[in-house]
Amino acid sequence: MPIQTKELHPGFAAEASFLDLSRPLEADTIAEIQAAIDAYPVLVFRDQNLTDAQLRDFAARFGPLEIGRAAARPGRRRLAIPQIGDISNLDEDNNVRSLDDRRRLDSLGNRLWHTDASYMPVPVVLGLLHAVTLPPPSPFGNGETEFADMRAAYDALPQATKDAVDPLVAEHDVFWSRAQIGFTEFPPGEREQYPPSPQRLVRRQQATGRKSLYLSAHASHISGWPVADGRLLLLDLNAHATQARFVYSHTWRVGDLVIWDNRWTMHRGRPHDENKPRDLRRATTLDTGSTLEQAA
Ligand code: OGA
Ligand code: MN
Fold this sequence. Notes:
The chain is of the alpha+beta class. It has one domain (5-287): Double-stranded beta-helix. It is 22% helix and 24% strand. The chain is built from eight helices and 15 strands. Strands 1-2-3-13-5-15-4 form a seven-stranded mixed sheet, covered by helices on one side. A three-stranded antiparallel sheet has the order 12-6-14. Helix 1 links the parallel strand 2 (13-16) and strand 3 (42-45). The radius of gyration is 18 Å and the shape is globular. The two termini are 35 Å apart. Bound molecules: N-oxalylglycine (OGA) and manganese (II) ion. Manganese (II) ion binds next to loops.
C-alpha cells in the first residue's frame, strides 16, 4: 500500500500515514518513503517505538551512515551504537548535564539555524530524529525543532540576487558556529580533525530540478571575498530564509520520527527546561561527494 501524506506546511513538511518502521520493509516501501522525502523534505512519522538498532537499520536503507563528531571522540558514551547520535542533555550515566557542562555547551550550537555537518568535505543528507523522552514546557520554549524551507527561500529571491549567489562558495567551519555562542573549548586535536570545508551556496535537487540555498550556522564567509562582506551577505540570506513563512515548527511527541533532508532545509532546536531530560536519537546518512562536485 503506498504511503499517504498529510501536508503540515505547503510543499515542505508532511505527516506520513502509519507504518511500523521497526520491521524490515520492502524495497518498494523504502522507495515510496524516499519519493515522499523528495516532495516533502521534512517528513513526520508518528507513534514509532524504535530501539537504537532498529533506528540504525531503518536509516541504513537510505544510505551509508555518519559517525558524528561526538561519537568519534574517545571515552565512554551513553549510547552503544556509534551510528546513533546522542541528541540529549544527558551524560554517560543518564543524568541531566549541568549548565556549565562542556558537551552540553557544544551541543547548544544546535539552537542556531544550521544544516548538519556542512563543515565536512562530504556533508550529510538525511537526518532521522526519534523522540524518546521529552521535557516539559519552559518560559523560553518547549524544545520544538524548527525547519526552514531552503528551496522556497531561494525561489523568493529577486532574479538579480539569484544570479549573483548562484556561483558562490561558502567556507563552513564548526568552530565558527560554536564561536557565535561563545563556545571555544574544544577537546585537544579537534580543530585539526575538522578543518573548514568549502560548499556551494546554491545547490540543485536532482529529483525536482529545483534550486536551494545551502546555508548553515557553520558558514563563516564567502570564498574569495573579504570575510566581513561574506559574513554580512550570509546574515542577510539567513534572515531572508528563516522568515516565518518558510518555517515549519515541529512540536514533539514521544515516538515521533522526523526525517529531513539536510540539503534543502535548515533546522534549529528551541529552548526547553534544562533541568529535565530531553532524549532524542539521530541517525544520519552520508552524501557521496562534495557539493563542489555536484551540478549546480
Ligand atoms: C539535530 C538537531 C535540534 C533539536 O538533531 O541535528 O539539530 O531540536 N536537533 O534537538
Ligand atoms: Mn542539527
